[in-house]
Amino acid sequence: METYLFGDEKVEWFSKLVYVAAFIGAWQLTLFTTKTLYMGWCNLFRWQQNDLLAKYGTNNETWAVVTGGSDGIGLAFCHELAEQGFNICLISRN
User: Fold this and answer.
1) Which residue from 60, 49, 51 is spatially nearest to 88, judged by alpha carbons?
2) What is the DSSP letter of 80?
3) For strand 87-91 and strand 63-67, is the pairing parallel, antiparallel, or unpaired?
4) Among 59, 52, 56, 57, residue whose Cα is nearest residue 83
5) Domain spans of the chain?
6) Rg from Cα positions in the chain
7) Rounded to an integer, what distance in angstroms lies between the CA atom of residue 13 and that of residue 1?
8) pLDDT tens profile 51-65
9) CA atoms of 35 and 59, how far apart (whole Å)
10) Prediction pTM value
């Protein structure tokens, strides 16, 4: 296969460069797809809940600091951590 870039000048390295660039692009697309599917599997299809009390300590001196815990998501975190047995330090504006 002959490739002419400028006039009659034969440029074979250009076609090889195109193949190399296509291979690198396909490899990057494969890596991106693999990582995306793995993250989706890990985050969307998690069947078990983490036992935070076992991870961070089982004694009565295990504390959790929750900012914005007077309402909304912070309040839900406070309730969830208290059910798991944590002592709660609540920081809020109101």
Assistant:
1) 60
2) H
3) parallel
4) 52
5) 4-44, 52-91
6) 28
7) 11
8) 787 788 767 788 899
9) 38
10) 0.47
